Amino acid sequence: MKWFKKVMLVNVFILSVIFPVSLLAKSLPVYKGVGGDFQMDSTLDKKVSLSDFSAKIVLLSFGYTNCSDVCPVTLSFLNNALNALDISEAEQTQVLFVSVDPDYDTIAHLQKYLSYFNDSFIGLTGSKNDIEKAVKLYNIRYSKTSEIQVSTDYRKNKISKDHEKNHQIHHSNHDTSSLYSHSTYIYLLDKKGEVRGVFDTTTAVDTVAQSITSLLKESEGL
Questions:
Q1: Is the pTM value of this prediction over 0.70?
Q2: How far apart are CA 99 and CA 211, in angstroms?
Q3: What angle in degrees, to the nearest 10, is found between the helix axes of 70-83 and 205-219?
């Protein structure tokens, strides 16, 4: 039996050298048929492409600033996911929020809205054609729930007064926007721009954080 144990130990050593631990563990799948590069105006005050963020892991979501429920919950969830990471990991992760409401969501509106949640979040918007390209790539469905324009007070009443006070957000009494229904997917993209995970706010925050950590280690060859 001693010789058998020695053989087993040698085999384990060889495997550990040839196959790093990260390769022995199950890696995140690559989602085929979804994803791709697109270009839009951004809250960085310049046009950007998704591929410009290839140095980081990307969390991509879609919505609009007058969304009264789903979008605030999603962005708070993404903020919690970043907070669950080590500082260095969070710095290598970028949240991108694509607006499906080009008529109301100017760069200025996106900048103010995203500041509620995390100053590092980047908002994207553009022409209807720009948005259509992005939503088709990521299988996002969206539509206006009504042609009636709703006062943005509808959204303001859903956001805590503390947030509004702290960020000094002010809107005109005549500020109006459409209401939309839209998909609530959160896409996890690796540094190659490939989709490696699809989440929503029912996903455990730790699951998202662990997935980001896994992709960062993968990109480092660990």
A1: yes
A2: 25
A3: 50
